[in-house]
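// run 5 | inverse folding | seed 20
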């Protein structure tokens, strides 16, 4: 296994191929388990979906049978991180393999520099058909759909046309043409418009006031008089109803793919761009919150060569998707991306013929997070700068505001809302992770691209979503 650099030192070296006897039919004979180039890859991003709402992640409140079944049919990553809880920067990391401080899109209010290579651009140049299907205008404006030959935008709130249009595109493809499709389902994000029967099933408290659940309204309420009675209950009920409806829409996609060769034909990845904040004091304000509720996301992979029913405990990140998919199409991500990439291919964890034998000697991985990191750049001017480092059981959170810096340490698994500061109990962990954050900042900022301004139309869209004025 080649190493991209010291910062991406391979911590999965502990994983080896099953070495006894002949390799399984169709398997590679040497590590790592590089799959044969799949005909089709479908990447689905699920906006604002917290891992703990899904049954396969232990959630008990919402019925998510289709995503749960997909997890059983493939590999589920128990600890998957995104680097920022905002839609455009997180998707930019997914689509470039680089942290926001490296690709330069450090908030929702800018656009990705055209010279930053995306997965779709690299694949398109190498003969892969590419298409994207989405219903959020922001992706055009943030320059995140560069490299997709076909770009289909569905203007409905329910993303009702995303799945049918993706399936229709697959039907039009030449049979053996390699293809990469990205579909974005903007359902569990406000505005909430869950259809029946989901709304009645999950909304148990009727909020008597004007049911305005926009980000701006919640910011104003939380900074002022607080939330009215039943506001939080209705918000959370509507959110769960949207999650249940999202699962149905995922089921439509899975049924459509099943009719087109199913998982034997298509490599399928589902990942959220961030979760939602359920804490009452930051209710629904995921874009300004860097807790485990927002930075730990569901991540499921299924399809050719992928282990069925595997649960991976190792920490992975959304920047890993790009090298994983480059490798899936037969390309060497290290050769293509060099020192710019922050991710690593996940095939040693995904491949059905790889066997995990435990952690090796390398230091466990750290997943870094940041918010907003460009002073004055976010829509909530009073928000502090946050830097996070998640490693194993612990997560360090550095908060900087007006020249002051505070650090806190949390149990990353047991305390997702980050209520209990453990820093005093583990000073050595605090020191080590604080150093890692400094090294990471120096490294990423030294190779950062410069984002461009967001168009006026893109700014208006964000304002309509309630993210306020610049
Ligand atoms: Zn989002």
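// decoded
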């Amino acid at each position: 296994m080649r190493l991209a650099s010291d910062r991406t030192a391979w911590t999965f070296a502990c994983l080896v191929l099953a070495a006894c006897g002949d390799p399984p039919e169709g398997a590679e004979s040497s590590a790592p388990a590089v799959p044969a180039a799949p005909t089709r890859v479908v990447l689905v991003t699920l906006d604002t979906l917290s891992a703990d709402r899904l049954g396969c992640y232990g959630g008990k409140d919402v019925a998510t049978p289709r995503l749960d079944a997909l997890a059983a049919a493939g590999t589920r990553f128990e600890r998957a991180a995104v680097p920022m809880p905002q839609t455009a920067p997180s998707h930019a990391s997914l689509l470039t393999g680089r942290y926001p401080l490296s690709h330069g899109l450090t908030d929702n209010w800018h656009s990705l520099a055209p010279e930053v290579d995306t997965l779709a651009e690299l694949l398109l140049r190498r003969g892969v058909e590419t298409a994207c299907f989405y219903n959020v205008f922001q992706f055009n404006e943030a320059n995140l759909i560069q490299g997709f030959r076909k770009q289909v935008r569905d203007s409905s709130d329910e993303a009702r046309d995303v799945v049918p249009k993706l399936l229709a595109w697959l039907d039009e493809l030449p049979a053996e043409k390699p293809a990469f499709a990205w579909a974005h389902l903007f359902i569990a994000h406000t505005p909430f418009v869950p259809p029946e029967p989901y709304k009645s099933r999950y909304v148990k408290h009727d909020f008597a006031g004007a049911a305005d659940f926009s980000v701006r309204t919640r910011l104003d309420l939380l900074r002022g008089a607080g939330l009215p009675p039943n506001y939080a209950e209705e918000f959370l009920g509507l959110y769960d109803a949207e999650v249940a409806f999202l699962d149905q829409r995922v089921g439509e996609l899975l049924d459509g793919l099943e009719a087109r060769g199913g998982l034997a034909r298509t490599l399928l990845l589902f990942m959220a761009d961030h979760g939602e904040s359920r804490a009452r004091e930051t209710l629904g304000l995921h874009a300004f919150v860097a807790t485990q509720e927002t930075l730990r996301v569901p991540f499921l992979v299924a399809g050719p060569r992928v282990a069925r029913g595997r649960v991976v405990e190792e920490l992975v990140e959304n920047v890993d998707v790009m090298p994983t998919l480059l490798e899936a199409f037969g390309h060497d991500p290290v050769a293509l991306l060099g020192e710019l990439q922050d991710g690593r291919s996940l095939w040693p964890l995904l491949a059905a013929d790889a066997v995990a034998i435990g952690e090796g000697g390398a230091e466990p991985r750290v997943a870094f997070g940041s918010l907003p990191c460009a002073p004055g750049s976010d829509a909530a001017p009073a928000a502090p700068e946050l830097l996070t480092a998640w490693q194993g059981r612990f997560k360090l959170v550095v908060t900087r505001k007006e020249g002051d810096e505070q650090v806190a340490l949390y149990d990353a698994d047991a305390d997702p809302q980050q209520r209990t500061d453990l820093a005093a109990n583990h000073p050595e962990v605090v020191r080590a992770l604080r150093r890692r954050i400094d090294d990471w900042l120096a490294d990423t900022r030294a190779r950062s691209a410069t984002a461009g301004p967001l168009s006026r139309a893109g700014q208006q869209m964000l304002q309509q979503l309630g993210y306020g004025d610049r």
